[in-house]
Amino acid sequence: MSGTCREIITLQLGHYSNFIGTHWWNLQDAALVYDCDAPLGELQSDMLFREGLTLGGHVTYTPRLIAMDLKGSLQTLRKEGSLYGTEKENSTFTWEGQVMTHKESPPTKNAFLQELDSLDTGGLLAEPDIICSSSAVAHCSVSSAGAGVAMETVNSRLERMQRSYWLEGSVRVWSDFLRIHLHPRTVSIINQYNHDGESERLEAFGQGEALLRGSVLEDLEDRLHFFVEECDYLQGFQVLCDLADGFSGLGSKVTEMLQDSYGGRGLLTWGVAPVNHPETSSIKDLYHMMNCALGTLQMANHSSFFCPLTLRGGLMRRPPPPTAFPLLNCDPMLWYHSSSVLALALDCMTSSYRLRQNSAPMWQLSDALAVSGRKVVSAYSSVPFPMMHGGCLPDALDALGDVLPWRSISACPELGDGRCFGQSVTLRGLDGQSLVSPLLPGTEPPSSLHYERSGEDVLTAYIRSHYPSTPLAVQLLSSASKVTPPFPQIFSPALTPQGFLQNQSAADYTSCQPVAGLPVLTCLQSSPAVGLQLSELQKACSALDLRRVTASFLTHGPEPAEISESMEQLRSLAQCYRLDLCRSSSDEDDDEDD
After folding, report:
1. Which pTM value belongs to this model?
2. What range(s) does the Misato Segment II tubulin-like domain occupy (predicted)?
3. Torsion-angle region of residue 346: left (phi > 0), alpha (psi -120 to 50) or beta?
4. Is the CA virtual torsion 218, 185, 482, 60 positive or negative?
5. 406 with 536, same domain?
6. Exposure string (b/e) for 398-413, b if CB count within 10 Å is 16 or more?
7. 43 near 98, Cβ under 8 Å?
8. Which residue range forms the structural domain that includes residue 514?
């Protein structure tokens, strides 16, 4: 297939969605290439970014993004951004008496943001007399007219500095580690509810549903029209939505609107949830569980597919311990940490429809996984993929034995019985490593994987050994995710700067350079395990008498009868994943064919 740019519009609904989205956009920004002589990357950044011009004629490259959050959630970030000049407010007064002005001190920026401001003012934007082809802005360095020396960019300086920013104690909101500029149409603040405090909180599904009307609806439609109208080949939308609070209700209405207005486009929705919530309680835990159940059902109904994304061990009130990765020193309770791991996985899982060549569009991915009404899928990841530096892929997979390398990032553990309806597996970041066995002819191979002659065949054979009869799509990308500042330094000292395992003793690990890239393996899966997860959630929610336990959840809707109907629909959705019903349906189809 050709490299035609099929644009994607991203929506981030909620504070944790914006945490994940900020890491994700930082990863995209770090992957941009500003050297005219460098080869084009595997991923086409123009699908996600848009070109523009400031009032001063400077070329800009900003995400095609709408980010919604609550009042008080931005801290140091201006809602309209800083790239485009905005008109100053009219300060003319008709009052002729004495005027006293009270000015609130702005929030203090952390060390990373302060140094980013310093780098940003050091020549990132081209001067008016600089000529730069608009079609090359994504991969061409900014250079002075008449001079053959390329100017440094923020990307190149951050990468060259190799400085670690320890932001664990200073990250309060997602903008505290945002390294890119946003378009003025990107950030949308919902002023009806507060980000923090004890009053006016967006906590229940019904509150979110009721939001998408009036000025909030008009504002969202205006922002959507702005980004949609400049697209030539709109591929679809990817939506990140907080699942455990009132944003689940808002996301249900937003995905319904997108389905009605842009039917036929891909609509991939990721319902995200942190491991913990600040100031939680037993009543709020009930809210979270109900929001997850109602949001999962409604957003799945309105999307091409819906995938929960979380390090939580489950979506119930008392879940198992959070997912842990052996080569990461990650604190799952820190949103700054947990969101970075999910962003790495999301970067890998979404690469199949962002490829420059041989890209599989969104609808092809969803059609392969969301079959027979099974529109909820689960995600698994290995962050990083454990491979020895200088090793080969067959050896890395053989070293795993009978244990699959990935862990659940959808609160849905695998059943381990080889039963699955469909999978999409992506492995990226093995640039410079051998994808096939380097054994010489005549040498006895240690396993059947060493017979395969391509990386795709090696990975396919390995997955087939665990899921013999499952429809499978496999993608391999050589480029790794660049984890440059301000990505948290959560990596084991056993890793090389490229993210591979070192062939050294533990005593030598402390002298290693920071990890700058990471190989990642991900799997999107439709399996009976999803049905068990949905069934467990439905039973727990149906057993609650909300009017007796927490009547406040019903204040803004939905009505008890509507919730009962939703629980019945969730039960029916869970039954779609039962293998005995699938076989029965298949046998009936065979009888009809006869």
Report:
1. 0.90
2. 6-117
3. alpha
4. positive
5. no
6. beeeeebbbbbbbbbb
7. no
8. 379-528
